[in-house]
Amino acid sequence: MRRSVIDMKQVLAALMLAMPAGTALAQNPYTISAPPVDTGVRQKVSATVVLQAAAGFHVNQAYPTSLQCSPPQDVGLAKSQLTAADGTIDQSQVRFTVIASPLSLGKHVIPCTLRAAVTSASSTDPLAASVQFVVEGK
Hints:
49% strand; 138 residues
């Protein structure tokens, strides 16, 4: 059986031509950032997790927003469950600051779940997004 090789550029071009004029590609209603941080072993450091609403969307401030983190054994957190009262929430973003302290050398990945809602003129979209940040003990 003979298989043909398909050029992905040709496939994408064909799909774009097949779309009716004025068709918009789906826009992600938000972005999440959590830059890595570093500190000395057993020293406290602030790690920031930010959800930014995209253009045409806003953060639903009435939604029970939270950040739940599950640190590995070798990282201490001042709080692993943060609520809206622990963060900063406005129309455009949600910002949580997590106080972490690595108990050993090396990079430590802290997985979290961010719960929030992003709203547009036509819908409210609750989300439970997986996010992680890295703390490096030096």
